[in-house]
TrEMBL record:
Entry GO CC: cytoplasm
HAMAP family: SurE (MF_00060)
Name of this protein: 5'-nucleotidase SurE
Top EC class for this record: hydrolase
Source species of the chain: Halorarum halophilum
Gene name in the database record: surE
């Protein structure tokens, strides 16, 4: 069987050690082409640019744009057929719907799915310090990704799934665990303190409870501190347990049809007079 052709991208930039680790590991089981952002693009979600510059790189190409730009450029501009897009390995986990929506790592996989190519977004976490501390390598996440990529072509997973979001520990890990992203997006908006105005250059501070815990290490020194709030089926619970979380996802924005929607449309049309120009006006 021919090795799959993998497009490798990320949101931490083409010089990220997480991307380098995936590149070296995936080459054992796939033909790998790197198309990654020239600079750090963390937190940009699936945002796209109207125009980008592209430079050659020893592993492929570096794009002066977002992760979604990278996926779009590779899948539509290169004269190559890709079987899979792998995005990562991210410096820190992407757990929960709130973070996944903001993540450039996940955004590249979502963009690939919209363009008809399945994707795997890979993020690394450290159980005690959450984000990878200095001195740690990405050998474990890279090995986990290689094992997944090697099995995906024969698995049939992408017959029903558009992309996978994977969170893997940096150290020895437990089982691979099928989970769902935790819905955790509440936001507190308050007037910023003087120090925060200087640091963030804004009059108001927007915080979710999740980011609030991350910003204050004395309140959130370990993942286990908040384990009580995570249901067993969630990606956060898997991360707390030291497992590899795997969320199998459809691309978003699926339309919902319901009786309430039909009633709203019927009531609006019956009660509101709308002037529609005639065809020859």
């Amino acid at each position: 069987m021919t090795d799959p052709h993998v497009l490798l991208t990320n949101d931490d930039g083409i010089d990220s050690p997480g991307l380098a680790a995936l590149y070296e590991e995936l080459r054992a089981v796939a033909d790998v082409t790197v198309v990654a952002p020239a600079t750090n693009q963390s937190g940009v979600g699936r945002s796209r640019s109207r125009a980008v510059d592209v430079d050659d790189h020893e592993w492929g190409y570096e794009v002066h744009g977002t992760p979604a730009d990278c996926a779009a450029y590779a899948l539509r501009a290169l004269e190559a057929e890709f079987d899979l897009v792998v995005s990562g390995c991210n410096l820190g986990p992407n757990c929960g719907e709130y973070l996944m929506g903001h993540s450039g790592t996940v955004g590249a996989a979502v963009e690939a799915a919209y363009l008809g190519t399945p994707g795997v977004a890979v993020s690394a976490y450290h159980r005690r310090e959450f984000f990878p501390p200095n001195g740690f390598t990405f050998d474990v996440p890279a090995a986990v990704t290689r094992e997944l990529v090697e099995r995906l072509p024969e698995s049939g997973v992408f017959d029903d799934v558009d992309y996978l979001s994977v969170n893997t520990p940096l150290e020895e890990h437990g089982e691979l665990r099928a989970v769902e992203p935790l819905a955790d997006y509440d936001v507190d908006v308050r007037e910023a303190t003087d120090d925060e105005r200087e640091q963030y250059d804004g009059e108001f501070r927007l915080e979710s409870d999740y980011w609030d815990r991350l910003d204050q290490p004395d309140r959130y020194p370990t993942l286990e501190r908040t384990a009580y709030s995570y249901p067993a089926w969630s990606d956060r619970a898997a991360v707390v347990d030291g497992d590899v979380s795997l969320s199998a996802m459809h691309i978003p924005q699926e339309a919902v049809h319901s009786a309430a929607v039909d009633d709203l449309v019927a009531t609006y049309n019956a009660e509101v007079s709308v002037g529609v120009p005639a065809a020859d006006d």
